[in-house]
Amino acid sequence: AGSSLAAVARDRMGQSRQAGDPALAEAAAPPSHSDRAAGFTVWRDDDQKGFLDLYNLPAVETGHPFLWVRGSDLDPYLPVGRIPSMEDGNGSFFYSVDEPDFTPTGILITAEPEGAQVTQPTGSVLLQGP
To answer: Kind and range of the H or E element at 9?
Structure first.
């Protein structure tokens, strides 16, 4: 899973695949269920920077949505930070992880309490995936 995520990231952010690659076209397509939360993330190893595109993220009544990433299914989630405000739960942003040579293989978005100094996910899960 990690290597395919890194390959898609390189493709999406301007590196090594040919234009018109069907895998890239499928990965870049918006989600098919318009009412369900979904996201698409890419990671650029050389910059240690990621891009996250979110669709239909549920509103958080108290607190704020918070992004977590992990390097493998066995690793704990690492805190990335608060997700910027988005209109109707749709939006995109760049993020980075303060870990050398890190490649995320999974993301988690939770609703965390306002003002809390979170070090592990404690709130309800809004979106989770590879």
So the answer is: helix 2-12
* Cα gap 67→16, rounded to integer Å: 28
Confidence of residue 34 (pLDDT cuts 50, 70, 90): low
**Which of these, 68, 87, 79, lies nearest to 129 by C-alpha position?**
68
Q: Encoding tokens for residue 89?
A: 């739960």
d(CA 55, CA 59): 12
Give the span between the Cα atoms of 107 and 110, in whole angstroms. 10
State the DSSP code for 26: H
Residues making up the chain, counted from first to last? 130
If we measure between CA atoms, which residue out of 71, 67, 65 comes closest to residue 85? Answer: 65
What would the mean pLDDT of 34-62 be, rounded to a whole number? Answer: 91
Span 44-66, average pLDDT: 92
What's the chain's average pLDDT?
Answer: 79
Q: Please tell me whether residue 25 adopts helix, strand or coil conformation.
A: helix
How high is the pLDDT of residue 26? 46
d(CA 26, CA 12): 11
